[in-house]
## 1
Amino acid sequence: MKPDKHEDSLLDGFDISLLAALQRDAHATHQQIGEQVHLSASQVSRRVQRLQAQGIIRRYVALLEPVAIGLGVRAISYVTLTRHSGDEGLAFEREIASFPEVLECYSVAGESDYILQIVAADLSVLSEQVLRRLTRIQGVGSIRSNIVLARIKSSTELPLAHLRRGA
């Protein structure tokens, strides 16, 4: 009997260990991961394919060091729109998608409408090229920016402990 959709999407302890290993090093071979999580390479391969098909594994990327490639300034910017009716939000979201310097954009509730994480080569590039372009987007009322002085913690690894409780 084929498991129902809910059962098919449950993660077991091997899946959770596999996801943790992939988050640490997605470049590792299935053999290497299998040794870490006590599965054969073929079992790892099947599980990875299933996790990809389920959309749990979105994609694989190389994480670059921004400073090493000349992007030494990072800013967190808070954007407030002039109005909250009409298409201002959609227009802003469409426009912001074309900014390669904007690494992340979140629509938020609170004092601002959007929070952006931005990288730039230096402060003048941030000010003259990125923030100036942001102010020209129709509907943008105000932008407040904080310049990051030091990176204390930066991680792409999602916590998985809550999954173990359900497994």
Note: The longest strand covers residues 73-81.
## 2
Amino acid sequence: MIIVDAHQHYWEPSRGDYGWLAQAPAALRRAFLPNDLRAQRQAAGVQYSVLVQAAPTEAETRYLFELAHEDAAVVGVVGWVDMETDDVGAHIEALVRDGNGLLRGLRPMAQDIADPDWLARPSLDRAFDCIHDCGLAFDALVDMRHLPALLRRLHRHPHLNVVLDHAGKPAIADGRFDQWTSWIDELAQHPQLHCKLSGLLTLLGEQVDEDAIEPYVADLFSHFGPERLMWGSDWPVLTTHADFAQWLRIAMKLTERYAAGSLAEVFGANAVRFYALDVDLPDQNLMPHQNLRSTS
């Protein structure tokens, strides 16, 4: 089975553009680069990876392109662009060109923007149009405050391929479920929205408790089905709570429990299809309706 990690990071704090690291756990305030992950990924049997931005600069996106050339497992990059700049289209096209096929999506760090309605601003329409026109996906890095605005954006751009990072960051540590699942119910009715099975362990307290995340995973499968979920490690943020292989085992076990027989889709084929990655999959890894990237 081909396994694709749909969400991992590299960063080098000495670059100076990772402002959020100042408030992050001390264990994360160091460099995490290809040599730190390569052996763990290989031991876990993960062949490919999508590298996701961690700094709100185009310079960091180009840095990720460089790292992708050092790490043969990286088959796609989700980058960053200032979506409110007047010439946003030119900026996106330049990143597409500089990535030479690596740029597969864009992600503003919406969770760090004070305005919870930012994603719904009409001033962003031009950027979203260009993302779609360039054949890119949109990664929604949000928490529950932003889900109403994301819903409005989905209404405005019904043909844009969107993925919800880390399941929208439900308040698992507080045991709050009803508000999150209500929003997921509305969001999942938009067929262009996919969701990453990622980042859930780090929403817990200090202890890793599989039982605490299970209701959320069950709800994700109920709403999105195995066709619109894709696994991501969220490494190295993951390392504050578990190692790479541990989270992979937990996620596989829960997937088998709630969508038996769909490991190939959730752990590989869905990410390949969604991000249009240059990865050859055995025919048996694709459901009949998954052999083309969705354009809905």
Note: The radius of gyration is 18 Å.
## 3
Amino acid sequence: MAIPAEGESVQIHSYKHNGHIHRVWEETVVVKATENIVIGGNDRTIVTESDGRTWVTREPAICYFHTRKWFNVIGMLRADGIHYYCNISSPFVFDQGALKYIDYDLDVKVFPDMTYILLDEDEYRQHSREMNYPEVIDKILRRNMDHLLLLIEQQKGPFAPDFINRWYGKYLQMCR
């Protein structure tokens, strides 16, 4: 699989299970890229929704993507600490200058004190029916949700205490 180069600016494309585009982040700078992991940074990037509406992110963020994990993590640097938004999603692929994944609705919002809430369970059930998510996908997503929650609780991987700040520092160096 192709991987982006460190320092490269890429788009992030989120799709739904039916293949329709869900959301596009215009510009993310790759700060780390291996055959399995891409870590990117962005700040005040334009986001385009499926209906054409646009908005701009409010704070710097570090994004974590994996080719084997069915989730991605966005760490947002705010005045009161790091807030995380985790999407239960397909593993990413890199194609035509964009990181692409399927968003499976379930999300986890993590606060600076590492408490968290699960989001969009109703949306998941609705889309599962409407788009006929296969049972095997449901099992994979549930297993990966359990793994994600364990990482949060143990503060490992992208939730390790220095992870976001370390990669944000590299992002700032690359943008100079």
Note: The first strand starts at residue 9 and ends at 15.
## 4
Amino acid sequence: MISLEQIRYFMEIVRYGSLNKAAEHLYVSQPSLSKQLRSLEKSLECELLKRTYDGVEPTPQGKYFYEQICGILDDLDYVIDQVRHFTEVRQLHIGGLANLVSYFLPQYMDKLKANGRNQVIVDTRLSNEELVDGIKNGIFDMALLSNAEPQQNIAVIPLMTEPLYVVFPVTHPLNTQKEINFIDIVMNERLILYKDPCTIRASIRKQCNRMKVTSNIVLELDLTESLISYVNQGDGITILPSIVAKSIQSPSIAVREISQIPIFREISIAMKKENVSSFLPLFSNPPALS
């Protein structure tokens, strides 16, 4: 008989492309995971995975099974959680970096509120460290992090990776260039950036250090709106995550992808490990980002 646990284990193996990595993520032993996989394959009477040089990959049957079951599991998790807490009104305390709370979190709010069964309370912090401490101390149930480091006792689960964009006035010469190079930006432009501590700033600094160049930072600000305002005045240009940059509506502001030497950031959700099965489905299947 096929169990839900066997299916979940198979899904994680495919996602990670490795039995060892999937076992670490699921907090089970690799032999136990292999045993569950063999039982699932026996029940389905076919081989679902094949070994490769780098790990494992799905067979044609395995790929079909994965694609068909993926969305069903997300919906099942959500329904189970909603039934379990159907008569309760619980408070969900969510922390996040300011730009994630403003530009990333809203797409999930309807699902988080669960038709009024959840009261969602949102607060911001300046750094990943403060947010992780908030989870450890019971201040937050979940927290949205940027470029987060793994944590020993907290589950940090990637949700998406997005590129950083360069933002400048439409009259700026960059707007006439077919491609934009990161090294040209940091060596030749006046930069207006988020104030430290900031993971976006850290990504820019890391890339500069790798290329052994020094950026010309003329202004450091806390708020995205302030960055855009000073850029609009012609005081410099800025670098923002794509979901932030694409939300800018001003016709006098240009938003362009850095096509050469691009920089990315990873958005993750953090929570206590025992809460993963309850909270993670709330962040599944978001509306497509424009």
Note: Residues 60-84 form the longest helix (25 residues).
